[in-house]
TrEMBL record:
Pfam family, one: SET
Record protein name field: SET domain-containing protein
CDD domains attached to this UniProt entry: SET_SMYD4
One GO molecular-function entry: methyltransferase activity
Record-linked PROSITE patterns: SET (PS50280)
PANTHER family in the cross-refs: SET AND MYND DOMAIN-CONTAINING PROTEIN 4 (PTHR46165:SF7)
Keywords: Methyltransferase, S-adenosyl-L-methionine, Transferase
InterPro entries linked to this entry: SET-MYND_domain_protein, SET_dom, SMYD4_SET
Region feature (Disordered): 110-137
Source organism per UniProt: Manduca sexta (Tobacco hawkmoth)
Single biological process term from Gene Ontology: compound eye photoreceptor development
């Protein structure tokens, strides 16, 4: 991929016009209209406009948006007057064809009583919403959830009333999330959806976005600083978790952190908001149980990441304008003027790395093959594909059970939690961190949870030694 021409240039308008022709061949009609809108707003040359206006008119006809097609054909006729470099005969033919289409359309619409055009299709799914009332203290969760605390297991969710199977209990956007490198040219860096047509960053060839809106949101926060350091991060081989630890910083300005740093250790009061870094900072990190080796390892990673932050221009609030390489990082002397920033942000990144170890989630996309035309037997061949890593601060308060009460899935960047069984008032509402009692034997589950999450699982299937499906005999099923 090469660089995009700078924003708002004639060159870019020509690029959009040409892409609209390609999209037309691919029958991606809504995208054709969007590219034509962009190309006109960027000042596409007047003597060429008849081409895109005519393409717009014909696209609108396909979409049965006839009222809009009429004005597009009228624009085509007007634009033909300025198409002085275009073959006179062809110009005349296009004018006649457009006039004919106008006549047909006007007649048809009058006969049909001038019906309204259908609404344009929305490409992105709407933002998911909890159907009932939101919890006042934890707005990402429903009012059926409350967060309790016990010394031995920390915070956990319980039901404030009876919950019916299927009920939606939580909808949350990530506080921070990062797409895996291998999806950076197919999925939106900002909202993780697959891009039918891409909007590249005008300053780097590293990532893409699904819309101008996502590009703008990213450029206004993390991507301004990440633009030229992303390739080095990927090349370093660091995990997506390390990248999230950095993103947790780059998505806010330096001043945001210097303002809140003195309150970070105090317990939060009031509404628990997803975008509040203080809530993330106070998630479980098991700092007191870590070994020296563990700290050394994480501090080395934090030192590398904070150096990247320094070269990105973050401390000065001036994003860097060219790519960075390993040699530049290695040869950098400690700059006295950045000493305090390096200490503060190095410390925050170190904390982020610890928190993420226990609180990050994988973001999945369900991929299903296109159904073959004419075949009406649906085979369930869809698979979940690991796309990104993210931290959802409210969901991170749910504890684990090997027989969970909820299931999670994604809608763009949002995670959605629904009950998979009826849950009684006062019962714990538990998540699952990986091993389920039906398929993984108890010893293996316990070992995995201890190694990854540092706790001894004491859920009912573990306590009562429930058998896996394979261990259940027919008799067992019947007697139970
Ligand atoms: C994602 S956090 C869950 C929320 C956490 N309890 C808190 O206070 O913020 C994961 C951590 O919670 C604790 N935890 C989760 N499930 C548990 C369980 N079933 N029993 C005991 N502790 C558990 C472990 O310390 C684990 O590392």
């Amino acid at each position: 991929m090469t660089f995009m021409p700078d924003k708002e240039t004639e060159e870019l308008s020509i690029l959009y016009a040409n892409r609209s022709a390609a999209l037309n061949h691919l029958q991606q009609y809504e995208d054709v209209l969007e590219d034509i809108r962009k190309c006109i707003s960027l000042g596409y040359p007047r003597h060429l406009r008849y081409k895109v206006f005519e393409r717009r008119a014909r696209t609108l006809l396909v979409l049965k948006r006839n009222q809009e097609a009429i004005s597009a054909f009228q624009d085509t006729i007007t634009a033909l007057d300025e198409a002085n470099k275009f073959d006179k005969e062809k110009r005349q033919k296009m004018r006649t064809d457009s006039k004919l289409m106008l006549e047909i359309l006007n007649k048809g619409l009058t006969l049909a009583g001038n019906p309204k055009d259908p609404e344009p299709l929305k490409r992105k799914p709407p933002k998911p919403k909890l159907p009932g009332k939101n919890n006042r203290e934890y707005p990402a969760a429903s009012d059926a959830i409350q967060i309790d605390y016990e010394e031995s297991r920390g915070r956990f969710a319980t039901a404030t009333r009876d919950i019916k199977v299927g009920e939606m209990l939580l909808v949350e956007k990530p506080h921070s999330g990062v797409l895996l490198a291998e999806y950076s040219k197919t999925h939106c860096q900002h909202c993780f959806v697959k891009c039918p047509i891409l909007v590249p960053c005008p300053k780097c060839p590293n990532v893409i976005f699904c819309s101008e809106k996502c590009l703008e949101a990213a450029q206004k926060s993390y991507h301004a600083y990440e633009c030229h350091i992303v390739p080095l991060l990927w090349k370093s081989g660091c995990s997506v978790t390390c990248f999230i630890a950095l993103r947790m910083i780059t998505q806010n300005k330096k001043e945001y952190f210097t303002k809140i740093v003195s309150e970070l250790d105090s317990k939060s009061s009031g509404v628990y908001k997803t975008d509040d870094y203080k809530n993330i900072y106070n998630l479980v990190s098991h700092e007191d149980k870590r070994t020296k080796q563990d700290f050394l390892h994480r501090t080395q990673m934090a030192a590398f990441l904070v150096k990247l932050l320094e070269v990105s221009g973050y401390f000065e609030g001036k994003p860097r304008s060219k790519p960075v390489d390993f040699d530049e990082i290695k040869s950098m002397a400690v700059d006295d003027k950045h000493k305090n920033d390096l200490a503060l942000f190095g410390g925050l990144i170190l904390k982020n790395l610890q928190v993420l170890q226990f609180n990050a989630h994988e973001v999945f996309e369900l991929q299903c093959p296109r159904p073959k035309p004419g075949k009406n037997i649906i085979k369930h061949t869809g698979k979940s594909v690991f796309l990104a890593g993210a931290v959802f601060p409210t969901l991170a308060l749910f504890n684990h059970s090997c027989e969970p009460s909820v299931v999670r899935y994604f809608c763009g960047p949002y995670i959605i939690i629904r009950a998979v069984k009826n849950i009684n008032k006062g019962e714990e509402v538990s998540e699952n961190y990986g091993p389920i009692f039906t398929t993984v034997p108890k010893e293996k589950r316990q070992a995995e949870l201890k190694e990854q999450y540092w706790f001894d699982c004491n859920c009912i299937p573990c306590k009562d030694n429930w058998p896996t499906y394979q261990e259940m005999t027919e008799n067992y099923m019947r007697f139970k």
